[in-house]
Amino acid sequence: MTPTLQRTTPGPARFRSLTPEQREPAWRSVLSALVLAAVILGLPCLMLWQVGPLPLPRQLDVSLLTRAVTGQTVLGVLTWVVWLAWLQFTVCTVVEVASALRGRGLPAHVPLSGGTQALVRRLVTSALVLGAVAAPAAAAAPVTAPEPAPVAAVQAQVAPDAAPASLGRDAAPAASGPDARTQAETQGDQAQTVRYMLGDIELPADVGAELVGQRVYVVQPPEGRYHDNMWDIAERTLGDGRAYRQIYDLNVGRVQPDGRSLELARLIQPGWYLIVPESAQDVDRVVAIAGDDGAQADTTTGSDTAPGDADASPTSMAPSSAVATVPDVPPAQMPAIGALMAAVLTAALAERRRRATPTAPGDEALELARLMRVGADPRRADRLNRILHSLHGLPGRPVPYAVVVDDDACRLLLPRPLPQAPHPWTTNDDGSTWTLPAGAEPAPPSDVAAGATSDCSGLVTMGRDEQGADILINLGAVDGDVVVGGEPTMAAELIAALALELCTNPWSQGNSVITVGLPGSLQRIAGERMQTAMELDDVMDAHPAAAEDVLSGHRRGEQVFVLAAGQETAQAKHDFNLIRTGRAEGARWRIDLDASGTARIDPLGVTVTATRATESELDGLVGLLAPAAPAPPGDDSRPPVPDPPEPPLSTAALRAASVRILVLGPAAVHAPAPAEPERLDLLTEAAVCLALHPEGIRPGAFGAMLWPLGVTSDVIAATVQRLRDWLGTDSQGVPHVRQDAEGRLTLGPEVVCDWDVLRSLLSASRHSEIHREAELLLEALRLVRGPVGEASRTERYSWLARVRTARQADALITDAAHRAAQILHDTDPEGAALAVDTGLKVVDLDQRLWRDRLRLAADRGRDELIACTNSLLDLTGVEDVSHVDPATAALVEELAPGASIRRATA
Predict the structure, then answer these.
(1) What is the pLDDT of residues 702-742, one digit of tens each?
(2) Are 663 and 758 in contact (CB under 8 A)?
(3) Which stretches of 291-367 are assigned E, i.e. beta strand?
């Protein structure tokens, strides 16, 4: 595909600020805007004033063509011509302005409007230059670099079109020839100034040292309403906008000059340096120029090794040197939904994995899942859930109007004082505040079923304060409306987050939630738990206040929560809890948000970082939680085996390998050298991360995965060095941990992972006769010890949510277990049972495997079937199999009528 033409001068020079002589005069922009306004607005007013309405014929017949042509007829024709020309001009203006605001692609072509559209395009482009003054000052600033400080002497020569060097070569350019070697040995006394140039732009020394040898694109500042984006960059440089993923992979996690880093592909900032693939067109390469003679430092010619070791292999460089120039990794940006909701949603994702619920998340949804795992606070959420479900059994049955929970204690703010609190609760403020220290939370009472409604079903998170405490309010205890004011977008996002919480919190089951004016993606996430209405008046009509409620003010029965954004104030009495944006008239509580997302809760007198559900996060949750499209009827296709290794690997190869990495269960690494016990967990995670990224991973992204809350470059370098020492070298003496030509960390071919062996065996089974297929399936299933990354500490392995290995392994293992049960059911029931048990170790509520287990149990008798059915009921916490899966209940009823419901024993 031929790259599209660039809109501006090629090369980094186009990012420099224009001189006054180069800028378009302001008067010309003003004149263009006035011309557009005069034609679009002034012309129709003038026509209506001077000529009147558009003349229309009174009747349509042949006389219209044969009558005499009068001055009035000519005037009418001219009037029509002017109005049609005005319409054409206006349509062209709308098309051009929409294209400019959208900032992507070419404007649509208006038929029969070539010259007119070209004129309008020039007017619109000139007029929109006025909008540039409103752009952020940082975006408009010239992309220039301060004078670099002196650095080490250049050790070799480089050609401008040299291929990219690895990070190791960036850190220590190799010497070439005796003069360079002598210079390297005495560089402390003969240091020179090195300048790093990108086209005709000089880069800071630290940035240039990292990027030297790479093709680098500088993100443009906005031009009018147009903002540079990764799709357009890929389209201009690689010829295909869909190739943006290549640019993303080269830059994810790398710290940019402003201290931020690339997390989502659509979020790039002006002035960022983006490494692009070698195939990019019209993109300059960063070169190092010696300050004394202008010679360019070569990163591709000569040796790839450090001075004094010219015979060493390029893959045997010390990783500490290889990652020496990797910048520090900043903390990942946590989701705006907050730590408590992130914990609830992460638990919901784990439950869906247990039930093998099919989903089809995209890359951005998987990245959200990773960030939720990092930002979630499951311990605090579990403590709060146990406390809320235990309140109904306490004396006085306290129902708080607000809750404050941190790592030390949980405090209930009560509407009426209860001075007598049972141990271990303590009271303050004459019984208006109850406090329970962390660690004293009771277990949920045995009579409270999973998902049962608590007395605080309306309790939702407002945000986290500066001391790290989560502030929650009980919407069901507010005697009146709750109004969220301030910045409109932030207010709507807060209300969307509250709606999502009311449908997902484990203590909020049984609520009726209705949304008005909120994103439709909320209902796709919540499903039947949430209803939507077009107008607030529709909800008022459906839920009028009962007469006695109007008099007493009390609400009875099921709590109904209505959350509305952009609606007029509800003046009439209503029988529901209303949370809305807008004016505070008639409101009981008011919450004010500013543009930074900080909220002040007036009744509590506290300020928090508000919990919000942004549009991008809701889209990601749709990908994670919304069910995938069902398979067509009769479609029994099996999941494909992703990228089976070539050549295939066997279990014998796994047993014989000097380095074995096991991920099909608790992560483990078997290496010839021992590791420090206190560093074993980190090194194991690092090895697993490399094993599940066979294409390689850049050191910066590697650090962002292992330390999502931030890490310095020296820690990354030290960890890579320790991992290299631990795993050792292969039969050729080359370290197992190495870097490829583009600087990515990879594992050598003699490192064997059980995930690779599993895929090899399952791929071979798909093309074998039935007896050999059964043998291969059982051999593959013997590798499985549990889910991928089982029992990994929650603060580690968050990146597993980002890769697809866990989902692929679940699908392949359960499919293999089911297929083995089908083949062996009649000939080897014990082998079939072993296969089913292995699959259920990975996905313990997979109903296809449970039906296989029930069939095998039925062959052994009714008692075995009933015992197997009760095991399923115990696992799910219900008393009727139909509540688990209707198809499974139908099978049980077919095999043993009446056995699908647990019978109470005398």
Answers:
(1) 999 999 999 999 999 999 999 999 999 999 999 999 988 88
(2) no
(3) 296-297
Name the most confidently modeled range: 13-17, 141-145, 291-295, 639-643: 639-643
Nearest to 369 by CA among 377, 359, 378, 361: 361
> Could you give the 3-state DSSP secondary structure of residue 542?
helix
Structure tokens given for 92? 């062209």
The secondary structure of 213-250, three-state, reads: CCEEEECCCCECCECCCHHHHHHHHHCCHHHHHHHHHH
State phi, psi for 584 to the nearest 5 degrees. -90, 10
Contact 407, 438 (CB under 8 A): yes
The identity of residue 533, as a single letter, is A
Q: In angstroms, how far apart are the furthest CA atoms of the chain?
A: 107
Task: Look up residue 38 and give its DSSP letter.
Answer: I
Between CA 335 and CA 323 the distance in angstroms is 29
Tally Cβ neighbours within 10 Å of residue 258: 11
Burial readout 493-519 (b: 16 or more C-beta within 10 A, e: otherwise): bbbbbbbbbbbbbbbbbebbbbbbbbb
| Contact call for residues 210 and 249 (beta carbons, < 8 A) | no
Strand partners of residue 513: 530, 561
**Residue in the structure block whose two tokens are 């049955």:** 397
Task: Give the H or E element holding residue 67.
Answer: none
pLDDT digits 0-9 by tens, 22-56: 445 677 778 888 898 898 998 888 888 888 887 77
In the block, tokens 């395009």 appear at 121
Contact 611, 461 (CB under 8 A): yes
214, 219, 247, 250: which is closest to 143 by C-alpha? 219
**CA nearest to 98, candidates 89, 108, 113:** 108
Whether the CB-CB separation of 682 and 719 falls below 8 Å is answered with yes
Quick one: three-class SS letters along 673-736? CCCCHHHHHHHHHHHHHHHCCCCCECHHHHHHHHCCCCECHHHHHHHHHHHHHHHCECCCCCEC
Dist. CA 117–CA 115, nearest whole Å: 6
Residue 735 bridge partners (DSSP): 729
Mean predicted confidence (pLDDT) in 101-127: 72
The predicted-structure confidence for 508-552, as pLDDT tens digits, reads as follows 887 889 999 999 999 899 888 899 988 887 787 777 665 444 434
703-714 exposure pattern, b = at least 16 Cβ within 10 A, e = fewer: bbbbbbeebebe
3-state helix, strand, coil in the chain (%, to 5): 40, 15, 45
CA 653 – CA 761 distance, rounded (Å) = 12
Joined tokens for residue 375: 């930002």
Residue among 282, 279, 361, 248 at smallest CA distance from 5: 282
The dihedral built from the CA positions of residue 518, 524, 527 and 528, taken in this order, carries a sign that is positive
Distance (Å, rounded) from C-alpha 771 to C-alpha 779?
13
Strands 577-581 and 481-486: parallel
* Long-range contacts at 625-634 (CB < 8 A, ≥ 24 apart): 625/345, 625/348, 625/349, 625/352, 625/359, 625/525, 626/359, 626/524, 626/525, 627/357, 627/358, 627/359, 628/358, 628/359, 628/360, 629/360
- Tokens of residue 902, six digits: 């647990």
- The two three-digit tokens of residue 228, written as one number: 């540079």
